[in-house]
Amino acid sequence: MAATISILMGIYNCASTLSEAIESILAQTYTDWELILCDDGSKDATYEIAESYQKRHPDKIVLIKNERNMGLNHTLNRCLEAAKGQFIARMDGDDLSVPERLEKELLALKAEPSLSVVSCCMSYFDDQGEYTRATSLPEYPSRELLVHGTVHCHAPCLIRAEAIRGVGGYDVDPRLLRVEDWHLWLKIYAAGGRGRNLPDILYKMRDDRNAAGRRKFKYRLNEAHVVSLAVKTLRLPAWKHIYALRPILVGLLPKPLYMFLHRRKMRKTSI
Question: What is the three-class DSSP state of 2?
Fold first, then answer.
């Protein structure tokens, strides 16, 4: 009998953190799940660690492998092809899910059949501990907000399988790299779906405090591309194309100024 929830985890060179991530899934209070791991051409011991867990839990864990590094979009689509659950969850190989995560998200989706996706707040941590939380998103985002950015945290989400499959999963266009989640929400909302963000912190993302300063400019251009797609796809007023300038201008800021503004924002959202 198929599990109710299929958890998609693309893994790449995360040997030092993968065990913790998988253990956080094994510790979930909701137990009717399958974990689908796809190794994206790792150069370290990631695949071997994943294989050891698959052998210990053959009824719960599926392991597949890309012949070469293909990127997260492609890897998640491979996981989706293998998924059998009614609901699709995400998880990254260096993060942690709070034990009640799946239970609370599934209850929220079942309580509101009109919802396509549920996500939650997350905290960020590094070797020194937790240092901030993700900026709060509206509980029930409107489709118009998609010109400003992603409307759900991607890694902790739970999606109805028919909703994500109905829009073809993740797009593999190079212009959508690092914004595959934002574009996925755009497709789901354009198809008539809607989502909810739970206020609880149910997911912990491993991220060093200076990571934001290393975002490449080409990914800022990808953000601008999604803004333009949102205006066109959702048939919003043409003047809203102006929001596509924001990620480009942010990418052009001198790094010291950008990091000052980023750290100031982090202090406002500290836990």
Answer: coil
Burial of residue 45 (CB within 10 Å: 0-12, 13-18, 19+) is middle
Assigned token pair, 76: 């998640």
Give the pLDDT band of residue 207 (cuts 50, 70, 90).
confident
Contacts of 62 (CB under 8 A, 6+ apart): 34, 35, 36, 37, 54, 82
Helix (H) / strand (E) containing 35? strand 33-39
Q: Is 129 left (phi over 0), alpha (psi -120 to 50) or beta?
A: left
The amino acid present at 175, given as its one-letter code, is R
**pTM over cut 0.85:** yes
Mean pLDDT of the chain: 91
Residue-range domains of the chain with CATH = 5-211 (3.90.550.10)
Using DSSP, state whether 129 is helix, strand or coil: strand
C-alpha span between 22 and 91 (Å, rounded)? 9
> How far is it, in rounded angstroms, from Cα 196 to Cα 209?
28
Question: In the beta sheet, which residues pair with residue 118?
Answer: 158, 196
